[in-house]
Design goal:
Layout (H helix, E strand, L loop, with lengths): L2 H29 L7 H15 L9 H24 L16 H12 L9 H4 L2 H31 L9 H27 L9 E3 L9 E3 L4 H10 L20 H26 L2 H26 L4 H4 L22 H14 L14 H12 L10 H21 L4 E2 L2 E2 L2 H26 L13 H16 L14 H31 L15 H39 L1
Antiparallel strand pairs: 1-2, 3-4
Helix pairs in contact: 1-9, 1-12, 2-7, 3-4, 3-6, 3-17, 4-17, 6-7, 6-8, 6-14, 6-17, 7-8, 9-10, 10-12, 10-13, 10-18, 12-13, 13-16, 13-18, 14-15, 14-18, 15-16, 15-17, 16-17, 16-18
Length: 576
């Protein structure tokens, strides 16, 4: 651990903090129908879209209609992407003449990009044509990101409104999010990446002859990379154009592009915390939620950075002292141009959010260093989290924290003027229980099937368990990163992970939207001396404790059999 590493973390934190308020204000204007600087250009286009789609922008939906729209939109877009993959060889923009994608892999990929997971069981540059990358995958990056944002905003409206049967219009919310937030930001972002050296073209791959061996050839991939890279990061999607993802120099060529990618993962989720405070009339509450998220983020980075800076001599050889120019640490699986600190920071950010982009190999982290990305996803990726999904996940924990506080003082809990009653707690607990049920059930099933589950492992013992556990955790958490020692491109894994991702996304959205509808119907009650304030540092501490306790109680036994046991075995090997 070096001063330079901590300086990188401090600079990132300062820049992130500086973006929270302006981004939050802009998001409120867009999602509340206010005026923006883009109105003269985009308002006519917005009206045209409503007219062509037959959407009445003035009509709002109750929670059931909103949930049906979310599910229907996701289902239709999944089928379209599946069809593009299966017909890929017959469609244009395929200069490499790639074959159709197989049915199980096409299902897995369509489910993955529909759910904002972007899990990739394939090598993108040798499997997906340019059309599939653009029309199937990149468009889904916009769709799934918009769905996450609007569900979070629907929940905020439920908290804000009183005696209301509606929580907004899904089609209006999604259209405005894509038009006014994601599309213009990605145009600017993609141009910045092109300026840094990221390709953006439709050329066929280049065949080169290496100087060392002129008789041999090397294929250099390219294509519409910058445009997909922009929405991949800003929409917390994470699917790479190349198999090496953000470790590839064509996706992430410079230190500036690396910093920009890390910042873009958190910029919208962090801004949504300010939008929460502004829309509910309690700015202090938004900052308290931001503070809770930031504390968990900082703790995760500190642990990962510490673990990766202290390698095991049993693994990395006897000499681990390091030098002045190359400090001691675990450099396996890391880009030397980014180093340990930056790779640890990137890994923490991408798994705090449901992004999954990587600039290093998580499977090559030390056991405790690798446990941090895994644990971040197990917490529900509520530490800023994906665009929208992180906020509504954290708001579920807010409801539970307020309920616990009410139990402690012996009165009906209240949250921003709304009484938290049995239905609200049931929906919150349903959300909290679905996630571990999916992960632990599927992990246990595949561990018990040697021919279908264990045969795909390259590593036995606790690390092999961690790889299977990470796969289903990443899928249900809609993250998409992996411990890559697992070959998941088999029929059983492709099909199971597809359902894993869909259940982890859509089944968990329904209780959130139902909670939004129930809160919107409630009347507002004035605060009393017994009301627990949700805009204080004490509340932030309670919220952090609630997140950690639920995560620890649920997943600690599985972590004990995986990364923790692996750490103890390596320590024993080092000592004896």
């Amino acid at each position: 651990m070096t001063a330079n590493g901590w300086l990188q973390f401090a600079i990132y934190s300062i820049v992130l903090l500086a973006t929270v308020r302006p981004v939050g204000i802009y998001l409120v204007r867009v999602l509340e129908g206010g005026r923006t600087w883009l109105d003269p250009v985009l308002r006519p286009l917005e009206r045209l879209i409503y007219k062509l789609a037959g959407v009445n922008a003035e009509s709002e939906m109750n929670w059931r209609e909103y949930a049906f729209a979310v599910l229907g939109f996701s289902a239709v877009s999944l089928l379209v992407t599946y069809g593009i993959e299966r017909l890929q060889a017959l469609l244009p923009f395929n200069p490499q003449h790639l074959a159709n994608v197989g049915p199980d892999l096409a299902w897995n990929t369509a489910a993955s990009f529909t759910t904002n997971t972007n899990w990739q069981s394939y090598t993108p540059e040798s499997t997906m044509s340019y059309l599939t990358q653009m029309a199937g995958l990149a468009t889904h990056n916009f769709f799934s990101a918009a769905v996450g944002i609007v569900v979070a905003v629907a929940l905020i409206r439920g908290i804000k409104r009183t005696n209301s049967s509606t929580i907004g219009n899904f089609w209006v919310d999604a259209t405005r999010t894509m038009l006014y937030v994601l599309a213009p930001a990605c145009v600017i972002y993609a141009l910045l990446l092109v300026a840094q050296g990221v390709p953006q073209n439709l050329h066929a791959y280049t065949v080169a002859h290496p100087l060392e061996q002129p008789s041999q050839t090397q294929t250099i991939g390219q294509g519409p990379v910058a445009s997909q890279e922009a929405i991949k990061m800003l929409g917390t999607n994470g699917g790479g154009f190349f198999n090496a993802n953000s470790a590839h120099p064509y996706e992430n060529p410079t230190p500036f592009s690396n910093f920009l990618q890390m910042l873009s993962i958190f910029i919208i989720p962090a801004g949504l915390t300010y939008a929460l405070g502004r829309m509910t009339g309690s700015p202090g509450h938004g900052w308290a939620v931001f503070a809770a998220m930031y504390v968990l983020f900082a703790a995760g980075f500190a642990t990962a950075y510490w673990a990766e800076s202290h390698p095991y001599s049993a693994v990395h050889g006897a000499t681990v002292s390091g030098t002045a120019t190359l400090p001691a640490g675990n450099y396996e699986g890391k880009e030397v141009r980014f180093g340990i600190a930056n790779t640890s920071l990137f890994a923490t950010i991408t798994t705090d959010a449901s992004c999954g982009a990587v600039n290093g190999m998580h499977d090559s982290f030390t056991p405790l260093g690798g446990m941090i990305p895994l644990s971040n996803i197990m917490l529900g990726e509520v530490v800023f989290g994906g665009v929208g999904s992180g906020l509504y996940g954290m708001l579920i924990f807010v409801v539970l924290a307020v309920f616990i506080a009410g139990l402690m003082v012996g009165r009906t809990p209240e949250y921003l003027g709304k009484k938290i009653e049995a239905y609200d707690v049931k929906m919150s607990m349903l959300y909290a229980l679905i996630f571990p049920l999916i992960i632990l059930s599927l992990t246990a099933a595949f561990v018990m099937m040697p021919d279908k589950g264990l045969s795909s492992l390259n590593n036995p013992g606790p690390h092999g368990l961690s790889e299977i556990l990470y796969a289903f955790t990443s899928g249900a958490g809609n993250n998409g990163s992996a411990f890559a020692g697992l070959n998941a491109n088999t029929w059983w894994y492709n099909v199971a992970l597809g359902w894993d991702m869909l259940m982890g996304r859509l089944l968990m959205m329904i209780p959130v939207i139902a909670l939004a509808g129930n809160l919107a119907q409630k009347k507002s009650v004035p605060p009393s001396p017994g009301t627990f304030p949700v805009n204080t540092s004490l509340f932030a501490v309670l919220l952090v404790g609630t997140v950690l306790i639920l995560g620890a109680l649920t997943f600690f036994p599985a972590l004990s059999l995986g990364p923790i046991l692996e750490h103890l075995l390596l320590k024993a090997g080092q000592l004896f």
